[in-house]
Amino acid sequence: MHTAKHVATNSSSLFLRRRIALICLALGCLATGIASVSAAPSATPMVLYDGALGNQPNDQGFTFVAPPSVSPTTSGGATVLNTSSNKNSFAGYFSKPIPQLVLDRVVGYTVSFTVQVELENHSGSDRNKDGTEDRAGFSLIVLSSDKRGIELGFWQDRIWAQEGGTGETLFTQAEGAAFDTQSGRIGYVLTVRGDSYALTSNNTPICSGKLRDYSAFIGFLDPYETPNLIFLGDDTSSASAKIQLAYVAAGLIEHNAPSLDRKLYVPLVVRGDPIPFE
């Protein structure tokens, strides 16, 4: 009797210990799930610059780089950046490091911005002598976490992509489309996913194509080697512009957010003080 009772008691104790272990395991999984949900990146776009606040991009999410002769002003909810008096000058805004934001092209992301190109001069910028000018007084550069990205040049009547790769075709005009950038402040959305990009305005397609690799560029303080980079401004000494920049935001593509157990920790990084890219 004593032996049977002892065996029964041990069995009951073992069963109880197993139940406690399973409960602890379940609670641990629940806690991990809650932590994963809390750490998941938000699909809500992060505002990097809002001109309605009455200051300039370098007072918010950007770093301003320019010679002393270029001094932006604020007017009517926008920053006025003007290099039109000297084509050899350059000026622009580079995104500051923001840990909450990642430009992961596998997940997909958007960069939204509002700008007006009042004046623009790119004459004499035919780099490869094919009869087509290859520079713009206002450009947008977006590089993903693996440095694949796109540079778009804005004229008053056209938006086009800078070619990547190597040799004579690097930084020459590629795909583009006629578009009026001068008539007012226009909202744009650049969508990047996988190997492709698309630029739209008010849900109207403007231009699209494959992402580029600009890493073959060799120059002092090469920004094309910087992952997770957003630039807006005049990045060349071969063109000039006067623009009004009113808004910039970036974020994940909402309907393609990463799974809850995927961890993304790559921030925006600006390396050094970039200079004109020729």
Plain-language structure description:
- By secondary structure, the protein is mainly β.
- It folds into 2 domains: 1-39; 43-256, Jelly Rolls (Sandwich).
- It has one helix at 2-39; strands at residues 46-50, 62-65, 73-74, 79-82, 91-95, 109-121, 138-143, 148-154, 158-162, 173-178, 186-193, 196-201, 204-210, 212-213, 229-234, 240-252.
- The longest helix is centred in the N-terminal third of the chain and has 38 residues, at 2-39.
- The chain is globular and about 45 Å long.
Short structural summary:
With 278 residues, the chain is mainly β.
Primary descriptors:
single chain, 278 residues, mainly beta, Jelly Rolls, 2 domains, 8-stranded antiparallel sheet, 16 strands, 36% strand, disordered N terminus, disordered C terminus
Helices and strands in order:
Elements: H1 2-39, E1 46-50, E2 62-65, E3 73-74, E4 79-82, E5 91-95, E6 109-121, E7 138-143, E8 148-154, E9 158-162, E10 173-178, E11 186-193, E12 196-201, E13 204-210, E14 212-213, E15 229-234, E16 240-252
Antiparallel strand pairs: 1-16, 2-5, 3-4, 4-16, 5-15, 6-11, 6-16, 7-8, 7-15, 8-9, 8-14, 9-10, 11-12, 12-13
Largest sheet: 8 strands, antiparallel
Low-confidence stretches: 1-41, 256-278
What integer value in Å does the Rg equal?
Answer: 26 Å
The pLDDT mean sits at 81
Protein structure class = mainly beta
**Assembly form of the protein:** single chain
State the helical fraction. Answer: 10-25%
Using the alpha-carbon principal axes, give the shape. Answer: globular
Overall number of structural domains: 2
> Do you know the CATH topology of the largest domain?
Jelly Rolls
The fraction of residues assigned to DSSP E strands is 35-45%
The count of β-strands is 16
CATH superfamily descriptor of the largest domain: Exo-inulinase, domain 1
Number of helices: 1
Write the H/E string, N to C.
HEEEEEEEEEEEEEEEE
- Please report the first level of CATH classification, the CATH class of the largest domain: Mainly Beta
Known CATH architecture of the largest domain:
Sandwich
Ends distance: 94 Å
